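lol forgot to send this yesterday, sorry. struct tokens for the thing we talked abt
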């Protein structure tokens, strides 16, 4: 129960006032309607009691009739002079209750009795918005016919009736609203959370930025039929959210492949970042997949469709994908990494072959100078977080991926921005078969990265040179791989064990030396 703040009235006085009101008011009629006691209702009306007397929270008999969808009692109360506009303490009116129920007959009755079709709740939700969420076209039409504003926005997120209907996949209501002038391309409020910019992040997910259109809402919620109705109503599939996402990208991010394919077939820009995104999401295991409809299309179908419609195989994202709780950092990666890079990190040779056949450049580097070969062994790929997980490929899958890339001209000794080669990455993951494969295909064994580490050093868990804090951070992600180190020694012609070598010192020793050097 909310407390009313009355200027100049103390708590004792407020309690006394409520007590006197409770004693003075005869709320028997409202109580009877609440309980559904029709006989008591008729008896009290016959006694000419005040039909507008409220309960403690301000609810009238008519509000309860609307809430219970009791049309006959509502008719009796209106005939007895009930005020259709009285709101309870929480701003709820008979009309908003009827709209929430989706009761066309009750809404019509109240409107004819003088209810305001543009009645709102305190948060700005109009009766039309409430009705739009129910999916009852007749209720929506009754409100529109009595002057309800189809493009009104509620106060919290700036959503319209069309957006709310689209999110619930009420296609019939979507069509009706569009026919009566709803703006199909209106966007909700762009939400900003300045506190999130201060200090270290305390959450795993970035707050949603809002700013979505009805079509984006439909894409997010897998509202296929509503999306179809919106496209028929000339909704623009190429608008972008404040986070740089199109409706197709939103559908792909959520694994809604049928809807994504429809958007692409209906004119969505295939070079807006959807291709690398689809290559990424295709290889994620959803821990909580959508259950609202059975998908007939697959990610591969969507990728083929985009390539057939002219998607550039080396297209990239224009902006980073927001960190979503469904994906954590899996789909962030380097913004400028291509679909080939993203498929390579998952050893998805099927998609890689499609991309290469369309002319994908296997030597292309991201801004961090990693190539698809680097991605294949996990270099540049962020750790998995969230509800969708990228499984680390096994050695045979990595080898098949590398073979495909090498067959098309990839540089086996390509160096990234940290000085690491693909062999460094294989050593870091302890992939002995991959190390052997790379060595057999000409990988240099003694290349040093910018921390002065060879692949053997990394296999031994050496953090390398650098500032103490940097070394500590790198050390968190390093493990010793004795079998990999033994293989590399053998390939390099070194003794089976070399305990005296500084390169074989554990991470802790390297960190200590680096720290001492800084001092």
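and heres what i got for the seq, position by position
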């Amino acid at each position: 129960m909310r407390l009313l703040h009355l200027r100049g009235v103390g708590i004792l006085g407020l309690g006394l006032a409520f007590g006197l009101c409770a004693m003075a008011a005869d709320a028997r009629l409202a109580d009877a309607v609440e309980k559904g006691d029709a006989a008591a209702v008729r008896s009290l009306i016959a006694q000419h009691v005040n039909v507008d007397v409220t309960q403690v929270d301000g609810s009238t008999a008519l509000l309860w009739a609307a809430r219970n969808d009791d049309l006959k009692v509502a008719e009796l109360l209106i005939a007895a002079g009930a005020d259709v506009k009285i709101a309870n303490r929480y701003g709820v009116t008979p009309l908003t209750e009827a709209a929430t129920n989706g009761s066309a007959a009750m809404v019509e009755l109240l409107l004819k009795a003088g209810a305001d079709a543009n009645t709102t709740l305190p948060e700005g939700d109009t009766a039309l918005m409430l009705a739009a969420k129910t999916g009852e076209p007749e209720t929506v039409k009754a409100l529109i016919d009595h002057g309800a504003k189809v493009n009104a926005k509620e106060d919290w997120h700036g959503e319209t009736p069309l957006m709310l209907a689209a999110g619930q996949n009420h296609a019939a209501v979507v069509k009706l609203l569009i026919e009566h002038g709803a703006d199909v391309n209106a966007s909700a409020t762009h939400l900003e959370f300045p506190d999130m910019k201060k200090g270290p992040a305390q959450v795993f997910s970035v707050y949603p930025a809002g700013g979505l259109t009805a079509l984006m809402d439909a894409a997010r919620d897998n509202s296929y039929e509503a999306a179809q109705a919106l496209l028929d109503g000339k909704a623009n599939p190429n608008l972008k959210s404040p986070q740089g996402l199109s409706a197709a990208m939103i559908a792909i991010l959520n694994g809604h492949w049928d809807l994504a394919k429809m958007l692409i077939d209906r004119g969505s820009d295939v070079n807006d970042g959807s291709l690398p995104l689809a290559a990424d999401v295709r290889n994620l295991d959803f821990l909580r997949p959508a259950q609202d409809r059975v998908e007939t299309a697959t990610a591969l179908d969507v990728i083929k469709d985009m390539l057939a419609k002219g998607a550039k195989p080396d297209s990239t994202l224009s902006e980073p994908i927001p960190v979503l709780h469904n994906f954590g950092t899996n789909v962030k990666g380097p913004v400028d990494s291509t679909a080939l890079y993203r498929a390579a990190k998952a050893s998805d040779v099927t998609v890689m072959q499609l991309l290469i056949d369309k002319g994908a450049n296997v030597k292309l580097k991201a801004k961090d100078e990693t190539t698809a070969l680097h991605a294949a062994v996990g270099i540049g790929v962020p750790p998995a977080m969230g509800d969708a997980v990228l499984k680390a490929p096994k050695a045979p899958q990595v080898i098949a991926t590398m073979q495909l890339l090498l067959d098309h001209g990839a540089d086996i000794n390509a160096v990234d921005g940290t000085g690491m080669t693909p062999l460094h990455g294989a050593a870091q993951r302890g992939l002995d078969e991959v190390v052997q494969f790379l060595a057999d295909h000409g990988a240099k064994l003694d290349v040093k990265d910018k921390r002065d580490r060879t692949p053997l050093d990394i296999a031994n868990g050496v953090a390398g040179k650098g500032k103490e804090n940097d070394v500590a951070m790198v050390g968190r992600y390093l493990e010793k791989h004795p079998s990999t180190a033994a293989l590399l020694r053998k390939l390099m012609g070194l003794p089976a064990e070399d305990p005296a070598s500084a390169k074989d010192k554990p991470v802790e020793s390297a960190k200590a030396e680096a720290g001492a050097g800084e001092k």
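Strands lie at 284-286, 388-390. anyway ping me if u want another try
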